[in-house]
Amino acid sequence: MILKTTIQGFVTAVKGLLLTVRHLFGAKKSRQSFDIRKADYFDKQEGVTTVQFPKEKMPIPEVARYQLHVEIDDCIVCDLCAKACPVDCITIESIKSPVPIGKTSDGSVKRLYAAQFDIDMAKCMYCGLCTVVCPTECITMTNQYDRSSTKLTDLIYSFAEMTEEEIAQRKAEWTRFQAEKEAAKQK
Amino acid sequence: MSDIILHIIVAVVLFGFIAMFALFAVYAERKIAGFVQDRLGPMETGKYGLLQTIADILKLLQKELINPSATDKILFIVAPVIIFGAVFLGYTVLPWGPDFIPASTYTGLYFIMAVVSIDAIGILMAGWGSNNKYSLLGSIRAIAQMVSYEIPVGLSLIAAVMITQTLNLNEIALQQGILSATPIKFLGVWEVTDIGGILAWNIFQAPHLLVVYIIFFVATLAECNRAPFDIPEAESELIGGFHTEYGGIRFAFIFLAEYAMMFLVAMLGAVIFIGGWNTPLPNIGVLRLADWTTGIAWGIFWTLAKTLTLVGIQMWIRWTLPRFRADQLMSLCWKIMIPIAFACLAISGLWRILVMN
Lengths: 187, 357
Prior knowledge:
The complex is a heterodimer of chains A (187) and B (357). Chain A has 187 residues and is of the alpha+beta class. Chain A has 2 domains: 42 residues; 96 residues, Alpha-Beta Plaits (2-Layer Sandwich). Chain A is built from 4 helices and 7 strands, in the order H-E-H-E-E-E-E-H-E-E-H. Chain B is globular and about 65 Å long. Chain B starts with a helix and ends with a helix. The interface between A and B is medium-sized, with 18 and 18 residues.
């Protein structure tokens, strides 16, 4: 009994050793195909599989669950994305405008200024819900995934383009407009 | 006086060699591990990661020596020195070439067995002195394993020594090649004293020594605490085993001892069973290959070639086989290897009396 197990053990050990030595010498080659969308992907996988990351990169789809981007010119500041976000990583501050500001590329009328449009990528869970609810499709997921940083605050991406003075000016415009409206009502 | 200086130089050269070997072996080990697992191993430090181990050792040397407050100070500090010293002493009696040996003693093999056993005490000191449950568990396992495996190692060496009739390792190597003073018979029948080469090696002088050699190899693997017998270190169970609490240069010494031990047992096996510094090439008629490839330089070359191949095999085994369970380890030792070693011991005696006369 014990002799049988020992012999079996040695035989399987030798089998294992032959397997590993094949890989040892197979490491002269490295895999040829990195793109899983190619038809012959699985035929070219012999040898070293390592991808030396910063130098080499795996091909990825153009748009997938990677970092977010906001095309701020197309944004109507509706706040839907911030509401949809399960982890509350989007912070939006809007200023109302007395007159329509302009139109987005798909024809929606913009009536709000985006004073602040921050996305905290450290909080983001890459679920993509914000891109689904966006009425103008201005918030999209890109193919960027490697934006490492030594400062945590670098991961808060700011997409608003307004300066401090502009914000103050627009705020003042709106308060004036409202005051005028109030005054008109009083009469 | 000049004798003492010579002895010191020999020791320093050997230490330098062991340190260099450890650096090289760690790099080789990581590369082999990588290739076996379809990875690349270290690639960033230097070309193909060649400077990786040098960077590692520089890091270890710079590190602060930390004494955890609950340790047994003396045991904790002395243990790495004893662990390394025990292995280092073993190198005194190993031959590198024809009559090229640090100390040619009549009790060489016995001496190695004696000093290498001290290693176990060092490990126990490290484990106990650390005052950490993982370290203690690791060292308990190490002692159980090393004491058990000392027996098959001893028995296999006795089986070999019964054939060679000497404990002097230089003599043992000498008897396996063309420089032998006594006649050599291939498989006990064909006189090959003049042909030499691979035919004159001990495993072919008495073929059952091949089995003995396998036992010796497996048992010494366990003595080194190498995978698949690495239950004293067992990273996945015991953090680092007996060296959990060590850092910096003390850890470097424990690590150095492990690699020195690998080289030591590989070289010991090479000397006793596969001809040591003797060439594997036989004389064939006018092609005096064995004559041409014998000498001190060739001796060192063959010793290194054989030993490094064996070290490579140790690494290959490490990255293939999973760790033994403690009871499997003991049953392999006591139920398989010791009985077979005893049988081989008996065959050795009979072979010596009946065939080699």
